[in-house]
Amino acid sequence: MSGLVVRDLQVVFDGFVAVGGVDLTVPSGDVRFIIGPNGAGKTTLIDAITGLARATGAVTFDEHELLGRKVHKIARLGVGRTFQNSTVFEELTVLQNLDIAAGWHRGPLTLLRRRSSVPPEVQNALETVRLTAVRDQLAGTLPHGQKQWLEIGMLLVQNAKLFLLDEPVAGMSHEERDATGELLGELSREHTVVVIEHDMDFLRRFARSVTVMHAGKVLSEGTVAQVQADPKVQEVYLGHPVEA
Ligand SMILES: Nc1ncnc2c1ncn2[C@@H]1O[C@H](COP(=O)(O)OP(=O)(O)OP(=O)(O)O)[C@@H](O)[C@H]1O
């Protein structure tokens, strides 16, 4: 099937089972939130999907097997991710960051010059991530929220089809959260979106489906209402300081 399919995924660090047999199916066009207490294995799951953590089991995206491939090969198959800490080039402008991500092989001098024209895919990405007005600003001067959007824009110009976003709204203002939620909805029209998030209010408003992880396994899965009503989830979460 198209979308992300994970079967019996295991990641073991020096005998410690961080991900212990996870099955996950995220159909094309979904906005899936993955939640769970600290240490549940959420980031490690994404590390395994993107080739950063060695894993066993099976992972396919749009029917391409990902496990065992190198990080850049997985990215070329349309799998994009963002990290909790921004990885943009702070000393370059928004446009230059997008240019580099788009693989416009221009020398350093050309890159530093102001662009006279902007390739259509870069322009589209600028508009989608709402950064057209700040395209000539140094990325390092952007507020946190806009840096996260720039990262998403960089994935867009790389033709990512699956967006794996690790805590995208951490540290964002209320307005930035709202705009990010809307952006996720827009992305899901043509892409598949997986979001690791601790912010329960954001989840309630923007998740289409939810997977709850606990101790390296899937504890519960369904709509927001279904997982909220699941006694197993309540047991893990009640009294746990995850409510934002
Ligand atoms: N490289 C590593 N070596 C050893 N143990 C690791 C490594 N990476 C993660 N772990 C352990 O694996 C477990 C899962 O970590 P992970 O970061 O995936 O959890 P998480 O659900 O993303 O947590 P958080 O919400 O705090 O980000 C934790 O106990 C962590 O300490």
UniProtKB/TrEMBL annotation:
Protein name: ABC transporter ATP-binding protein
Species of provenance: Actinoplanes palleronii
CDD domains listed in its UniProt record: ABC_Mj1267_LivG_branched
Residues making up the signal peptide according to the UniProt record: none
Residue ranges of every copy of the ABC transporter domain listed in the record: 4-240
NCBIfam families listed in its UniProt record: urea_trans_UrtD
Superkingdom as given in the UniProt entry: Bacteria
SUPFAM superfamilies documented for this protein: P-loop containing nucleoside triphosphate hydrolases (SSF52540)
Keywords assigned by UniProt, alphabetized: ATP-binding, Nucleotide-binding, Transport
GO molecular function annotations of the record: ATP binding
PROSITE patterns assigned to the protein according to its UniProt record, in alphabetical order: ABC_TRANSPORTER_2 (PS50893)
A Pfam short name: BCA_ABC_TP_C
